[in-house]
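User: Here's a chain of 326 residues. Predict its fold as tokens.
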Amino acid sequence: MSENLLEIKDLSIEFRTYDGVVKAINHMSFDVPKGKTVGLVGETGAGKTTTALSVMGLVPNPPGVITSGSILFEGTDLLKLNESAMCQYRGKKIGMIFQNPMTSLNPVYTVGHQISDVIKQHQNVDQKEAWKRAGDMLEIVGIPRERLTNYPHEFSGGMKQRVCIAMGLSCNPQLLIADEPTTALDVTIQAQILELMKGLKEKYKTSTIFITHALGVVAEIADYVVVVYAGCVIEKGTIQEVFEQPSHPYTQGLFGCLPDIESEESAMLHVIRGSMPDPMDLPAGCKFCPRCDKAMDICRTTDPKDMSIGGEHTVKCHLYGKEELV
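Assistant: Prediction complete.
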């Protein structure tokens, strides 16, 4: 049996609007090994959240259309399941912490009602047992069970995020998707949430897709890194491989934007010029070419293939010798 819990292969997603076709995801492929955390890194609009929604079967259709690829969960292609079959995976086997804890909770229901509702839906238990388990989940994330009867507005931002984590883990899923769970929080609370998630990962051996903008967060929590740009995976590998040898010019640029706190000399930070291309008008060839300081003629006309540069480390760039499709 494969050591990968989830395998995304050649996934492409479009949003067909009145203004044109938005090519949100373009032939994306990566794996999530069992019991490991994969950090999905990229700037706003790169396609990280759309990828997560596709795994959950929540890409809105219309206008969203999955035009190619497969999403294999323990060998089952989720894209071939109908809504009824997908409900057996969503929430039960695959949990998700959505992007903004301030708006992810329903303001007119208590947090206990919302967590127990998820448990009743997927665990086939009565209200009393679901309520007890909801209290257990709150205590696991560091909130007293007495707070079950409180409403979301009675919690701070960090506490709301803990509630969202409790909800995502309430059915003990095999895969947890955390969509920028620390973005709206201050640095101190971010650190607490990261420590909490690391502890829960060790306790439950849950595989995780951790979506973030921040390389520092990835270094803290991930085992593998997948760098996404304009809906494409441009570099991926273990945390050690990518952090010790960032190879794609975009990945190098991201690391160049980070200040070196150990350096005694002040220096200008690197700037990646320009912005991501319009997904309705993507350039031919390499999608990063218009912003790349190392661009060659071939970059403007031919889309690079995945290149293996050792171990599990691959990069999508013409700079790396003879191309071999991985």
